[in-house]
Sequence to fold (209 residues):
Amino acid sequence: MKYIVLILAFLLFGCKEERYASPDKDIVVGLLPYKGMDGNYVSNIETEIEKYYNVKVSILEDKALPQTAFINIKSPRYRADSLIAFQKRMNLDVDYIMGLTHRDISITKHDDKGQIRKPEWRYNDFGIMGLAYCPGNSAVVSYFQLKTPDKAKQFGRFKKVTIHELGHNFGLPHCPDKKCVMTDAVESIKTVDNANPWLCAICKNKLNL
Fold:
């Protein structure tokens, strides 16, 4: 089996302010499965989010990926930031919306001066697992770059990324604890595999969990 070269990032934008939203049962997270998304992943992640963050989760009607987000620089992909913007324009009756897809997603990574990171060929179209604004109310996760023959491990990665991106939406920045699910992946799948599928005590306290 030919393995996909993983070029990963958990988040493009760090938290500029510390503004935390304490999850509770009055908060509704809408899961938006894009066409072709594995239904088992959707239903299983619904349970995991409800159990972990103690929020209500609503599975929304599936949608086709918008062609306005499509890009084909290195390979056929969808821009994660465009998907987040698309989701926010839907004006759904939920507090947060999490897009889920099996298709590859990407961003352009910039340095502190706003320029495309070097080497530009690598960062102009940079494949990622997920993206969320911090804080924000819209995120997107893909399992395209999480693939492994071990299906249980693959879903475990997907679960970690989803919990991570929702954590950003709730206001959590990256965590220096390498075992915390909020740790920065630093472009390595090994970092994801090494992290626990839950928040460390400090991050949990920030959200009053």
User: Anything to note?
Assistant: Residues 1-14 have pLDDT under 50 and may be disordered. The CA atoms of residues 32 and 127 lie 20 Å apart. Residues 151-169 form the longest helix (19 residues).
